[in-house]
Predict the structure.
Amino acid sequence: MTRALDVSGLNAFYGDIKVLDDVSFAVEQGRVTTLLGANGAGKTTALRAICGMVRRSGKVDLDGGTIVNLSTEDIVRRGVAHVPDGRGTFKNQTVDENLRLGAITRRNGPEIGRDLDMVFSYFPILKTRRQQQAGLLSGGEQQMLAVARALMLRPRLLLLDEPSFGLAPLIVAEIFEIFRRLNRDEKLAILLVEQNASIALDFADHAYVLETGRIVLQGSAEEIRRDDMVSKSYLGY
Amino acid sequence: MTGIDNLMDKALDKPGAAPSRARRPYRQAWWAATLAALVILPFVLDGYVVFQMTLVLVYALAIIGLNLLTGINGQFSLGHVAFFATGAYTTALLMDAGLMGYAWTLPIAGIVAFVFGFLFGLPALRLEGIYLALATFALSVATPQVLKLTPLTPWTHGVNGISLPKPEVPWGLPLDQDQWIYFFVLAVVMVLLFLALALVGSRSGRALLAIRDNPIAARAMGINIWLYKATAFGISSLYAGIAGGLSAIVVQYVSPDSFTMNVSIAFFVGMVLGGLGWLPGALFGGAFIVFIPQISADIADKGFEGIAYGLCLVVLVFVMPSGLAGGIDLVKRKFAR
Amino acid sequence: MELLIQQILSGIATGSIYACLALSAVMIYQAIGHINFAQGEMAMFSTYGAFQLISMGVPYWVAFVAVVALSFVGGMAVERVMMRPLLKASVFSQVVMFIALLTLFNAGAGFFWDYTVRAFPSPFGSQPFLGFSLLSQHQAGMLGITVLLLGLLFLFFRFTRVGLSMTAAAADPVSARLVGIRVGWMIALGWGMAAAIGAIAGMLIAPVVFLDPNMMMSILVYGFTGAVLGGLTSPAGAVLGGIIVGIVENLVGTYVPVIGGELRLTIALAIIVVMLVVRPRGLIGRKIVERV
């Protein structure tokens, strides 16, 4: 079965500086992969490279089809939904408009309507705040809106960049519970970048550890969690 | 990176700043050749062409002034016709009132233009990039209207303009009037050019460059940004004003409709084509302004000059790096191998 | 009193033209963060196009619609061909390009149609509107068309997918790309619309100021003044600003003795400088975020 995402020999650049060096990882269909690492390791860059937001080279295949030379818009249209760090919501637009924008490339009205209902069932708070300006929502609500908007694309692959950032632990747990449901019920493949290693490893099936632009460790989430180096450096014990 | 962006980087390599060892003799040769050519010209060419070359020098002076503001200090101006007109009308008014000879009007034209430029530069301090371009754009468009103001007509003669007498050849020199005017203008331009170069090479000049490149860092180093920027505006206007005064003397006529947006654009185009910051470049820019209308009038009806300007700019932005300066460097690099 | 009302109405009518140009300016500003100095010349060029069609016997409204459509396409083409490569370039490069466009369109008009001043027909006539001496039919027509245009634009941005996409692309191009919006095309659309609106403005004002290649330069400045006054980030502000400028200009011209009519551009300049220095976001615009 082709992988949802297959990245091999990926290099990424900011200007002339090489930030990712020969990086390889994958997300299996319907599974969750997590990229771990400290600040500046290149995790966010990896997501940006997949989406074509930085200069990159190497192999990036989505469901077997190459996307490494496409523009961001085209990659998104192939079914990659990216929830960036900083949420990326349209602050001056309402919740409703944000969700409509998530589906802006889709044609089928009734299907979009059904997805809207689906999204509201996962995030009921958004329904109550439907006509509010997105910029006025709390941090947790904005995160939910960002994910909901990504779901409106009906993506094949969901990229999550530090979804726990700046959120209270209770909210984080709530959000990750929703991610679990999405992965389980919608069979959504997810690539998760997280600094919070323990919650990421709880959730993911596979894990890769990045250090200054290179993969230094990989394996199943279980294996990684038990690894000495990881538990000392990233899990704190 | 477009050609224009290369141009801005090039500006760091200014005459006055220490050029690299390899370039020094080359650059000096260029200067000597240009100067020699300029001195010989009026004896070789006929009267009308000498007149045109004089205008080229006048425009080159204005372009050098604009350069000081935009190239060195990074402030935009699409409004330099206003300062040019200020100088021109100051000269014209003083001469018309019989108050003084043409030569003495120039410092006054310069000072008046400086004051005006400095004053305009003050509110302009708060404006950056496109906003400054917009404000100066409006300044240009407003200029002819201001010159036609009815209450000022007793002096400016409104739309009719002011006619001026042609300067006489002094001290019995063996030159005809066109040649004398040419050398007079050449002398003024050379003096002002060397002053400009001295400024750029000085500490103040480096301060101006620093402000252009990184205003925050400049301020952190203790440079009084506001004073420098407003003064840069003033100095740039001074140059434009003296150029304006010279143009009044050379053309022997000023009228409001000579000072339109097109003149500002011409200066701007000349500066861009010349390649921010080079004397030969400014001359090339000036030549472009003066001769393209001539040539295009021979090719086709009026209007073609604008098309020529426009096309040159387009080509410049996309193709030829750094205006003339860049084109020559490109050639130099090819030959260096 | 009647004179005052007449002047105010007249100011609103001309102000509506400034509002159109202000709106075009805001559209492009929202798309690329820059001001297109060539807008007036593009509008003038479109107006000449209409003139050409009408002289060749095409009925006025057919020519009107054709020119609006062609200007739309032309505006998009200009953006895609000439401005797109410069999207990442410096302000300086882009300003040079605007100036290039300005000279090309101005010279082009002079080249194809020469510099004699011409009359441009009005489909409304110059009779008093509804018998009132307060407003001529043409002025009423200017107002009417502008209101109609604004209404259509409002509906477009509020209720259509493309409108929402354009708004999103202007507000946050990165996020817009992440939902799949082709931001480049949205920018082109903005230019197309700005050009079309400019053409409408040109065709409406030409009967009043007469057609010549330099007719739009000062009108453009008034348009920019309106945009700066209302707020470069606010379409509604642009309209409001344009109308205010129209009224102020008219009243100053009528009531300030001797030089009132001659100070209009100076006043516009003063407004621009004061607004940009004191309150750059305009009367009702949002705070302009510095694009570092």
